[in-house]
Design a protein that fits this description.
Pfam families: EGF_2, EGF_integrin, I-EGF_1, Integrin_B_tail, PSI_integrin. The chain is mainly beta. The protein contains seven helices and 29 strands. It has a six-stranded mixed β-sheet, with no helix packed on it. The N terminus is likely disordered.
Length: 467
């Protein structure tokens, strides 16, 4: 099978089934695996006792599921081997970078990567055809040229149609999700790129099983935030003994003697209501009788407490005493912002990967501090990280003296006469004693500022005699 590079992406002659654009998540999914397999946009909420499990990220946020509890695999690409060419500039052999990749692929979510192909100089640069080894059914590779000439850059796009199901024949089920080794070879050459592809059809959280979990009344295992109850127990927290119900009695599922079972919004199972989901998937019907009136009565105190001054903080609407928050807001009264801009550190990581962004603010892991967890006064690395810039900005010497403006422009320096004139070390101010390039001792403090950093430096350096 082959695809020619003419700036067009031609599909390989493979069976390829794809989800429709209006694919909705399987809200009734009984497991995380079933949820993520129902669509590429579907995520699972691992928060214990969550009223909603399988939905899009947007709907899970609206339902109050925190980002840290959302499981939404998007696949990942890793370059395994990427050797550089040892040939001289006038090459007589083809060379490809990278040589080996590993790809975890979620069906419905495409991944792309470039291949740089150096064509032998004694070969005419013509149309190049890419061949692949046989592919599993439903796996699709396309190619396009994004840079012509020599070297040639080829973009490879990989996508899987769906996860295999139990309905697939035994041959397909034998190696359901990989890993599959796929070779990509320029036609007419022996050099190939090896790509190992594995489908992400199972949730990693299933590996973390908490046996006899207190969250499951010590009667079941907690898996991906959901209880798997031991017999004969049932319920969201394994709180019901199903053997205690000799015969299901629908009277337990009625709000009154002649009231409809589960208020007409669910079914009675072993004397308890299993409520249907509303047409609006943002909120489930809840309560022993699935009655909206019962829900409102049950949450009346909560409603008076949290919504008396401003209805859901002006950032949502109240339904049956609970807030349905607008986009980018969550919490009981929609007072928690999902905005993360204020948590973005200078290294473009949320909270410097040293904390969690909650309600638009960083909650730092000790000993890190500051608005984006970039400060660590007790960490020796803070002083070492900035010493070269302190030296070139304060004294015009050191390893960075020739590129000080380019690399150290973030740092503002103030010179003082003695150590007594320096700011006192504190939670956000690091005291540093470091050796300079001249083997002199520098005394300075460093603190993080919105524009970068600020150092207060003692003018006099302690140098060996003769310097």
């Amino acid at each position: 099978m082959s695809v020619k590079l003419l700036g067009l992406c031609l599909l390989l002659d493979l069976l390829c089934l794809s989800w429709a654009d209006d694919q909705t998540c399987l809200t009734s999914a009984s497991s995380c695996d079933e949820c993520v397999q129902s669509g590429p946009e579907c995520a699972w909420c691992t928060a214990p006792n969550s009223n909603i499990r399988c939905q899009t990220l947007k709907e899970l946020r609206r339902a109050g599921c925190h980002k840290r509890h959302m499981y939404n695999p998007q696949g990942r690409l890793q370059v395994v081997k990427n050797d550089s060419s040892t040939e001289p500039s006038i090459a007589t052999a083809m060379f490809i970078q990278p040589q080996e990749l590993s790809l975890r692929l979620r069906p419905g979510v495409s991944h792309s990567f470039p291949l740089t192909i150096t064509i032998p100089t004694d070969q005419p640069i013509t149309e190049l055809t890419m061949d692949t080894s046989p592919l599993p059914a439903g796996l699709n590779l396309t190619f396009s040229s994004i840079l012509k000439g020599n070297p040639l850059v080829v973009q490879v796009n990989v996508e899987a149609a769906r996860c295999p199901s139990e309905r697939d024949d035994s041959t397909q089920r034998q190696n359901r999700t990989g890993p599959w080794s796929v070779l990509i070879t320029p036609r007419g050459f022996s050099l190939s790129v090896k790509t190992e592809i594995t489908l992400e059809c199972q949730c990693d959280c299933t590996k973390n099983r908490e046996k006899n979990s207190p969250g499951c009344s010590n009667r079941g295992d907690l898996v991906c935030g959901q209880c798997e109850c031991q017999q004969p127990y049932a319920g969201q927290q394994c709180q019901r003994d199903s053997d205690s119900f000799i015969s299901p009695n629908e009277d337990f599922c009625r709000s009154g003697p002649n009231a409809p079972v589960c208020s007409g919004r669910g079914k009675c199972v072993e004397g308890f209501c299993e409520c249907e989901r509303r047409v609006n998937p943002k909120r489930d019907t809840a309560g022993d009788t699935a009655s909206a009136a019962t829900l409102t009565k049950r949450t009346k105190i909560k409603k008076t407490k949290t919504l008396s001054n401003s209805m859901c903080g002006g950032r949502g609407k109240c339904e049956c005493g609970e807030c349905i928050c607008d986009d980018d807001w969550t919490g009981e009264d929609c007072g928690c912002s999902m905005e993360t801009a204020a948590c973005m550190a200078t290294n473009q990581n949320l909270c410097s990967n040293k904390g969690m962004c909650q309600c638009g603010k960083c909650i730092c892991e000790p000993p890190y501090t500051g608005p984006t967890c970039e400060d660590c006064p007790v960490c020796h690395g803070t002083c070492r990280q900035h010493v070269d810039c302190v030296e070139c900005r304060a004294f015009g010497t050191g390893a960075k003296k020739d590129r000080c403006d380019q690399e150290c422009g973030y740092l503002t320096v103030t010179l003082v006469e003695t150590q007594e004139d320096m700011p006192q070390p504190g939670e956000s101010i690091a005291f540093c004693k470091m050796r300079s390039s001249e083997d002199c001792v520098l005394y300075y403090t460093f603190s993080r500022t919105p524009s970068g950093g600020e150092a207060t430096v003692v003018r006099a350096k302690e140098c060996p005699r003769g310097l």
